């Protein structure tokens, strides 16, 4: 959690059915914890089963509702959609979808093959669209819904060895605009949250070295680390009815990267 500031409470999230992809670790795990703390009925999918089960235990131990975990590889679109339907059968119609699963492993631009390109687009972009398609009829029937897509600041800044990832993340911004228009008439909102460099365990383990810390200190206006909780606060607000007039927009939480 960022500092000691308590999270706001959103009455509209209490009992809401929330689905988060890639919820076992990283930002997704923070979202699982924070939506559960709001009293939401949280479901999440991931391919890391052990981490997912440990997270569900941890959340339950805090006194919140145990989140529902289902194994799903978001790259396999048909089975992922079936899992979404099954989650809705168990918990009820999904009212909030957080499209979050991604893979930001570095790749040299001149070594990308067509099959690598396809795989990275599937994990970083395609499922956002197909998961939204799967939940849209449920949201339409209840007259409201909120889809929060995780983009990335990497689309907007200089960053090497991420050409496919950055392209997919740019696509998410376009997808957000298009779906907001298509689904708005049904009361469904679609927004894009763009994190800056967030200090998840994975980022700290693989990429945040002394040089990276210097870059962060130089480029960010705020002289502090951006934490998963900073992103979760924004995602909660966009999911809640408190933001009911907002759709089709990018929301950046990057500490003021200049
Ligand atoms: N951490 C950052 O600094 C940062 C910055 C900008 C954008 N983002 C975006 O925020 C989101 C979360 O980032 P993160 O840092 O927590 O990522 P992460 O890599 O730490 O976690 C991603 C999660 O998705 C899961 N996942 C990966 N492939 C999957 C698949 N095929 N099927 C199902 N689940 C799969 C992973 O197991 C993991 O639990 C991503 O969309 C990412 O692009 C993160």
Topology, pairings included?
Elements (H helix, E strand, L loop, with lengths): L16 E5 L4 H12 L3 E6 L2 H13 L6 E4 L5 H15 L4 E4 L14 H29 L2 E6 L12 H22 L3 E8 L5 H6 L3 H10 L8 H12 L10 E4 L5
Parallel strand pairs: 1-2, 1-4, 2-3, 4-5, 5-6, 6-7
Bound molecules: nicotinamide-adenine-dinucleotide (NAD).
The site of nicotinamide-adenine-dinucleotide has 28 residues, from helix 1, strand 2 and helix 6.
Tally of separate helices: 8
| CATH architecture annotation | 3-Layer(aba) Sandwich
The biggest sheet, with number of strands, parallel, antiparallel or mixed sense and barrel status, is: 7 strands, parallel
CATH superfamily: NAD(P)-binding Rossmann-like Domain
The domain count comes to 1
Cα-to-Cα separation, first versus last residue:
24 Å
User: How many strands appear in the DSSP assignment?
Assistant: 7
Strand arrangement, largest sheet? 3-2-1-4-5-6-7
Q: Structural class, please?
A: alpha/beta
Whole-number radius of gyration? Answer: 17 Å
How confident overall, as mean pLDDT?
97
The amount of helix comes to 40-55%
Query: Which ranges are low-confidence, i.e. pLDDT below 50, for 5 or more consecutive residues?
Result: none
Assign the CATH topology: Rossmann fold
**What is the name of the CATH class?**
Alpha Beta
Q: Rough shape?
A: globular
Bound molecules: nicotinamide-adenine-dinucleotide
């Amino acid at each position: 959690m960022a500092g000691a500031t308590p999270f706001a409470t959103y009455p509209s999230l209490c009992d809401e059915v929330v689905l988060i992809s890639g919820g076992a670790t990283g930002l997704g795990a923070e979202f699982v914890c924070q939506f559960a703390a709001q009293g939401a009925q949280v479901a999440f999918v991931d391919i890391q089963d052990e981490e997912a089960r440990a997270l569900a235990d941890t959340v339950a131990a805090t006194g919140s509702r145990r989140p529902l975990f289902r194994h799903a590889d978001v790259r396999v679109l048909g089975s992922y959609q079936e899992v979404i339907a099954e989650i809705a059968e168990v918990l009820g119609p999904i009212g909030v979808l957080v499209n979050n699963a991604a893979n930001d492993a570095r790749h040299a631009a001149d070594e990308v093959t067509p099959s690598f390109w396809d795989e990275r687009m599937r994990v970083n972009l395609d499922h956002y669209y197909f998961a939204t398609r799967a939940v849209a009829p449920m949201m339409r029937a209840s007259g409201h819904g909120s889809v929060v897509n995780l983009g990335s600041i990497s689309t907007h800044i200089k960053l090497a060895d991420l050409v496919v990832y950055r392209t997919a993340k740019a696509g998410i911004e376009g997808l957000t605009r298009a779906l907001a228009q298509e689904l708005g008439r049904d009361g469904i909102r679609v927004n894009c949250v763009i994190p800056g460099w967030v200090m998840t365990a994975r980022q700290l383990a693989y990429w945040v070295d002394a040089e990276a810390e210097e870059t962060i200190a130089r480029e960010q206006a705020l002289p502090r680390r951006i934490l998963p909780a900073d992103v979760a606060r924004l995602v909660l607000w966009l999911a809640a009815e408190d933001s009911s007039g907002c759709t089709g927009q990018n929301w950046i939480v990057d500490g003021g990267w200049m």
